[in-house]
Design brief:
Length: about 250
Amino acid sequence: MIRLKAPWEIAMMQASGGRLAEVVAILEHAIRPGLTGLELDALAEEEIHRRNGVPSFKGYRAGGNRAFPATLCISRNEEVVHGIPDDKPFRPGEVVSIDVGLQYGGYHADTAFTVAVGEIPARVQELLDATRESLYEGIARAVPGNRTGDIGHAVESHVAPRGFSVIRDYVGHGVGRDLHEEPTVPNFGQPHTGVLLKPGLCIAIEPMVSMGSHLTQVARNGWTVTTRDGSITAHFEHSIAITESGPLILTTL
Ligand code: MG
């Protein structure tokens, strides 16, 4: 069931998203060589609580999985999504994807970004740039009258000509009172297909892009998703509201 939000609910989601954007700015500033994922996770949890929020991911269960143990998903290099923070220090040359959700006043916000730790190869920087750009290409299509396929088509059309491939096993989603609501928002698709976008629909658009194959596998811990061929990946996400006047990015300052 798709739950369209009333204007007052979108205002609540802006309050959640704004808080989450503040936390993200702090995390982006904090990531450096030597810091561990567990240290970054503790910082995120503290900053979420400081804003009277609740981490959306901690304790989250997806279809029979054991509860996710942390505030952040930290996915490094060939890890695509759902990485579990650990005590291994970040090293120069790594790319680190941070996915974080916050619930405030009963409404969730969900966002993700990928950063380079120190110097990275030019081609990997191209991956990060193309993936970030593809998110905004997708957001630009999130207008009333379009369909989810228009968003996915825009995302894939931006990254595929650059030699990158969109992950197909994991997709964006509706967001609101639940972290994951209908509809699904794939990062691929055909124009004019999929779910019709209406004012009040709130969705998380989240391109995940690989330098190599799009095929994935899940680690024994039941969570961490990696590319099967070991290719580096990037992930960028915003929660947005579809309004009469266009897309409103919720997870921004
Ligand atoms: Mg998400």
